[in-house]
Amino acid sequence: MTPLRLRWRPDPDPPSPSGVVGVGVVARALRPKLDRPLSRAQTETRADDNATDDDATMHASTEHAATKHAATTPAAAERTTTPTLMATAHADLLILTGPADALPWVDGARYIAPRPEAPTLWLPTHLRPDAPLDLLALALARKLPPAQAASSMLLWPDPAQLVPLHRALAASAAVLARIDAYWARG
User: Fold this and answer.
1) What is the SS3 string spanning 83-117?
2) Which of 33, 43, 113, 159 is 20 to 30 A from 79 in CA distance terms?
């Protein structure tokens, strides 16, 4: 497959962030920020909405089913990570998506967001490729397997990579533990 060569330039009208990315040591620094307990306001909002950790992990795989009951107790609710964030990772990258006010931050992290002209294409908010985004999204989708072609993808400039976002799971304690275990294996 021929590598896609893109020139990146500053985005003159950056969108509001819908996610944050950490690469390398920044990913490792970003991950512990997810261990903070829910704030009192978040806990009360979730209770008012009749939300439980079962709701927050609805899209997680069935291997996390055993953790659902324990996370609905009041004591566990205080230790639960923010349920509004979705997380995905690989060996050198951590991607978190969700509401801007829920996104954690560390020095070196970068915000990401989709663009209106290519809603499945997520980019850093501060940069954009020097190509029409709608055509770029179509070209990138053609390089993916059919099951992934219609899903959202992150185009990251450095190191250059295309990361499918369809595997992101609710940032529950169980998902974060899986990321930690994956990174520990090196």
Assistant:
1) CCCEEEEECCEEEEECCHHHCCCCCCCEEEEEECC
2) 113
Which residues does 168 contact at the CB level (< 8 Å), separation at least 6?
86, 87, 88, 95, 97
161 φ/ψ angles, rounded to the nearest 5 degrees: -165, 155
Using the predicted structure, report yes or no on whether residue 38 has a pLDDT greater than 80: no
- Exposed (0-12), middle (13-18) or buried (19+): which is 81, by Cβ within 10 Å? buried
The answer to whether residues 57 and 174 touch, using CB atoms and an 8 Å cutoff, is yes
What are the structure tokens assigned to 13, written together? 């009208």
Q: Please name which of 103, 102, 131 lies closest in space to residue 115, comparing C-alpha atoms.
A: 131
Six-digit token pair at 70?
């324990």
This prediction has a pTM of 0.74
